[in-house]
Amino acid sequence: MPTSALACAALESALNRYLDLDPDTKARFADLHGKVIGMQILGLGLTLYFVPAPQGLQVLSQFEGAPDTLIRGAPLALARLGRGGGMDGLFNGDISIDGDTETAQRFGEILGDLDPDWEEHLARLTGDVAAHEIGNLARGGRAWASATSQSLEQDLAEYLKEEGQLLPSRYEVEGFMHEVDRMRDDVERLEARLARLTQDRPRAKAAP
Amino acid sequence: MAEQDTTHFGYQQVPAAEKARRVRAVFDSVASRYDLMNDLMSLGIHRLWKRFAVELAGLRPGHAVLDLASGTGDLAARFAGLVGPQGRVVMSDINGAMLEQGRRRMADQGLIGNIEYLLIDAERIPFDDHSFDCVTIGFGLRNVTHKEKALQEMHRVLKPGGRVLVLEFSHPGGRPLKAAYDLYSFQVLPRIGRLVTQDEASYRYLAESIRMHPDQETLKMMMKTAGLERCDYHDLSGGIVAVHRGFKL
Known about the structure:
Chain A has 208 residues and is an alpha+beta fold. Chain A contains eight helices and five strands.
């Protein structure tokens, strides 16, 4: 049995366990029953086939027919699909779609909306009060982490650009790119002019 | 001829007419805990074997598939997902108790609409010729009294271009694996059976029936004799299990 088959089995069981925690999303996947969504992971030479059904998702490592839709992208771009990025990747060119784009879009959206209600599932184990407290803590933690990572990102960018003078600012980069473009055009113009001049020379010699 | 009137039931010889009844008794006895036992006995690996068979089935939305000896429907549930709402899955078993378990499980999983349930003897399949894109039998062929007859029937109901898949315990290759496997199936397995289903004899039958089942090459020849073409097989877990595949061209 190939390794990819084992990876598929592991992925399938993880996804379905996750889906069990979010029945709404599971039901939305069931609406896609009868469709086959292929996902080609560029760079790994791996294509996975997702088959939604009422009981959950099946993940296959081989499929003999043509899938209804084939989503192609680098691993990170595809991972963003499932992390709430929705189909943004499609617009910035990280992801391409062959076949039925509507199915691909719905699949991407559902994957992006996957958001289990952890607090409710926790409540079954710990009771409502404790679950709510833990939920608050987790939400606080997540908000803090998100704010911290955002401000860290900003601070780091500012340091590298302004304080350390290690990286150029966006305007400098754009200006530089513009100059490069102009230079390329100038060179092309010069080339064309030289070509014309060398063409004219024999004629000039031949003239009396 | 006297030999034709008897068949093997595990290591015992029994009258051919009686094998079906005895097999039914075994599965009546284990039906309620069949899934749990499968997980315990194979350490969960049976799920991977079944996954592999499903990928080899080559099903697409809209296909019709007959699953014989479905048991509690592990294969049928996956097929129902693959063939989509337009497809058709006939889930069948010779044993009413097993089929009832399977039917309940399917309904619990929300699988309705494209599944039918039928009590079917694989030696007499109640369908017209050329009815299915795929006919499968998972861990069932060794319990069938006349295997050749069953394979012929499977071939008959297949559409041209369709395929038969037989997922069954087989004969492991290497000597160390064989020794470990024997120890496991004759010493450990019946004990697990006694603990979980209070039925040691049924699980002893299981181990014995696996040993009496034809090996990979023999089964491949039997499939060819039944009219199937381009027959091949894939060993899984070192040959403890094999998936045989044959096409009707």
